[in-house]
Specification:
Elements (H helix, E strand, L loop, with lengths): L2 H4 L93 H4 L27 H9 L4 H20 L3 H5 L6 E4 L4 H15 L3 E4 L10 E2 L2 H18 L9 E12 L2 E12 L4 E6 L3 E3 L1 H10 L10 E2 L3 H9 L6 H6 L3 H26 L1
Parallel strand pairs: 1-2, 1-4
Antiparallel strand pairs: 3-8, 4-5, 5-6, 5-7
Helix pairs in contact: 6-11
Protein name: Non-canonical purine NTP phosphatase/PRRC1 domain-containing protein
Organism: Diatraea saccharalis (sugarcane borer)
Main location: Golgi
Length: 367
């Protein structure tokens, strides 16, 4: 063996034929990996790229157990049922959420059940369904918007009267009640106006001067005070033609009353007269004690020639008490007891207004 034979023989490079290539001479694997376990893979009937057919082993079928599917009506906790946070109004139908395909087959308005008038606490505000029904209930009598408006008006009125207390009389001026006071003194008109406006809500109260010439300047006793009050009312009706018998007129007359020996009190008598309805009310105010020395001074100032000496004195007790206390004659009650005459007349006028209101209700019921 020569040296050339000892060398390793180099394998010959295979020749590439016209009918194939290098990969075509390599046989494919006997079986391809299968990554799908749930579905069977159908073997290909024709080889691709002139490759020989591949034998694919089909996996064993997975047994499937039948599952019972409940209908929508049988499922109490169906996910399609919508449970809002706020429960619907009683009587309103509850609709489930439908898919776009089911929305085409919605029920007609005629097939929906009619809503019942029974409502809960929200029914006072929303008696029906819908925005327009709610707005209708809100603006009607007793609705929420009306209550808000009344509350706002009350707050504004309270602020105005706090800044200017005299504006209270003008804010409540008007209404169906028209009262005339037989006096032009504001100490008599103001408490009567406030009393009637408080009882009736709104009232117009005006005053005109009226004199009494049938009794003494300072009446003594209830009978003299009543006669003086009646004379003031008659004088006012005779001098003012616009005051017919249907307009109530109130007269205020102060008088002295001796309850026991040498125990004197100053009292105001209020008389309301409305002849068209046959109404005449008489009411007395709270009394204010008067010292016996003041009454003795008034008696001494009245002469025997005074024409009305039988009904009282020629000078008022207010002028004597004002001179003694060094105050205005309309302020002596407050200076003596701490309660002003206006407050005394206000309480009496409230009782008078309440009694008059009840008589009007009885008269309206009879007619």
């Amino acid at each position: 063996m020569n040296g050339n034979d000892k060398k390793a023989k180099i394998p010959e490079v295979p020749k590439v034929g016209s009918a194939g290539n290098l990969l075509s001479s390599i046989a494919p694997p006997s079986q391809l990996p299968n990554f799908v376990t749930s579905l069977p893979v159908a073997p290909s009937s024709e080889p691709q790229n002139n490759a020989p057919p591949v034998n694919v082993t089909q996996p064993a079928p997975i047994p499937v157990q039948p599952v019972m599917v409940q209908q929508k009506d049988d499922a109490p906790n169906s996910p399609e049922k919508f449970s809002p946070a706020i429960p619907p109004i009683k009587g309103e139908p509850t609709l489930s959420i439908r898919s776009p395909e089911d929305s085409q087959a919605t029920q007609s308005p005629e097939s929906l059940p009619a809503s019942t008038p029974e409502v809960d606490k929200l029914g006072d505000i929303m008696p029906g369904s819908g925005l327009f029904t709610w707005m209708k209930g809100a603006v009607t009598s007793g609705g929420i918007l009306q209550r808000v408006a009344e509350k706002a008006k009350s707050s504004v009125d309270s602020m105005i009267t706090t800044l200017d207390p005299q504006m209270k009389e003008y804010l409540k001026n008007g209404g169906d009640i028209y009262i005339v006071v037989a006096s032009d003194k504001e100490t008599k008109i103001s408490p009567i106006r406030e009393a009637f406006q408080g009882v009736f809500g709104k009232a117009t109260v005006v005053g005109f001067p009226a004199q009494s010439d049938v009794t003494a300047e300072q009446p003594v006793g209830y009978a003299a005070a009543y006669a003086a009050a009646k004379q003031r009312i008659a004088h006012l009706r005779s001098t003012r033609s616009e005051l017919n018998n249907n307009i109530p007129v109130i007269a205020v007359e102060g008088f002295l009353q001796e309850t026991v020996s040498d125990r004197w009190f100053d009292i105001s008598l209020l008389v309301l007269s409305q002849p068209s309805l046959g109404i005449e009310l008489q009411l007395q105010s709270q009394s204010t004690p008067v010292p016996g020395a003041a009454v003795a001074a008034a008696s001494a100032a009245t002469t025997e020639q005074y024409e009305h000496s039988q009904t009282g004195y020629s000078v008022t007790i207010g002028s004597i008490m004002a001179a003694s206390l060094q105050v205005h004659h309309s302020e002596w009650q407050e200076a003596a007891t701490g309660v002003s005459r206006r407050d005394l007349l206000l309480l009496a006028a409230k009782s008078l207004a309440g009694s008059y209101k009840k008589l009007l209700a009885v008269s309206a019921a009879e007619t």
